[in-house]
Amino acid sequence: MSVESSLKMLVSGVILDLDGTLLNTDALVVGVMKVFLVKYSKQWDGREVHKIVGKTPIEASAVIVQEYGLPCSTEEFMSEITPMFSDQWCNIKALPGACRLIKHLADHKVPMALASNSPRANIDAKINCHQGWKESFSVIIGGDEVRAGKPSPEIFLEAANRLNIEPSRCLVIEDSVPGLTGGKAAGMQVVAVPSIPKQSDLFTAADDLINSLLDLHLEKWGLPPFEDWIEGTLPIEPWHIGGPVIKGYGRGSKVLGIPTANLSTEGYSDLLSQHPSGVYFGWAGLSTRGVYKMAMSIGWNPYFNNTEKTIEPWLLHEFKDDFYGEDLRLVIVGYIRPEANFSTLESLIAKIHEDGRVAEKALDLPLYSKYKDDLFLRSSSL
Ligand code: RBF
Ligand code: MG
């Protein structure tokens, strides 16, 4: 891409959404709803999630009462559910890239506002649990502090006004359609980072559509770029996953000539949902064989449009035989790129080989090579 086509309108301030953008609130909502619905002999069905993201609490409650045909009013529902949430605000994890983004903008003195449909008291309770967040925002506005919440532009216009920045010079970062709609109606630049997968067609109004905060390129808007990318890779807080190798789709070696040692996702749905889809790399340990370099994808493999989120490590080593059933241990240390679709199988294969070369080279950097000795890779029992 040329510089001209990738450079957008220059901005001087950033307005951030909270739930689903900086915080993994979905995980909490799902947890609470599962417990709550049992009382009414109903089962939480994730399909409603897209109808509640970005809504105010009262709107979201109305949707749930109606969708599940609950024998109570929206108000009754809210008064029952609110206490179930209120002692949990501190348990909401920051989404990958959220702390990095806030710290980067604060370090570079970029004015920042938080604009959320959540009531102000809840916002405060949530962000107080994350070190350095509150101080980084010069403006914080809750849904109860404006006449109408998102998708009304009011909360964004109020944020811009208090930041003392022209709306057209504000960059909004949002995970939901109501947030995107409000930001555009306010005349702002909007980066959409959808919290619900496979819904990108709903976000065509966005000025940029990214998969996770790890893919944010602030320089497109004239903001100071992140400086932590190194040789095409982004260091992340290392995480571990392990289990027996399963056959997966058996497609890796057959169709692509790239044998992936797929891990069973059973028991790991929580861990997987915490990590954005994308191409990552790190170290892989096979108890009876050794430790190898590894590049992997997490997600739905857009080229194949899988229905399940899978984790597909490619061990960068020639093995004489396969090792289905063996215990595979992974330490994931860095990120390379979002998953992509390709017009031909050849271009997918070429890209995966490029990922392999990037990983191979980066893993020799001390920053990443030190994890080769991680004890998790060598432990023999699960
Ligand atoms: N699949 C995609 O559809 N798009 C991708 O961008 C993509 N990137 C990958 C990168 C690496 C390093 C690996 C190991 C796999 C990737 N895959 C991707 C998944 C690949 O399509 C999958 O492993 C095979 O289909 C085998 O099931
Ligand atoms: Mg949101």
TrEMBL record:
EC nos: 2.7.1.26
UniProt cross-references to Gene3D superfamilies, sorted A to Z: HAD superfamily/HAD-like, Putative phosphatase, domain 2, Riboflavin kinase-like
Gene Ontology biological process terms in this record: FMN biosynthetic process; riboflavin biosynthetic process
Superkingdom, taxonomy of origin: Eukaryota
Keywords of the record: ATP-binding, Flavoprotein, FMN, Nucleotide-binding, Transferase
EC primary class: transferase
NCBIfam families with a match to the protein in the record: HAD-SF-IA-v3
PANTHER family: RIBOFLAVIN KINASE, RIBOFLAVIN KINASE/FMN ADENYLYLTRANSFERASE
Protein's recorded name: riboflavin kinase
Record organism: Linum trigynum
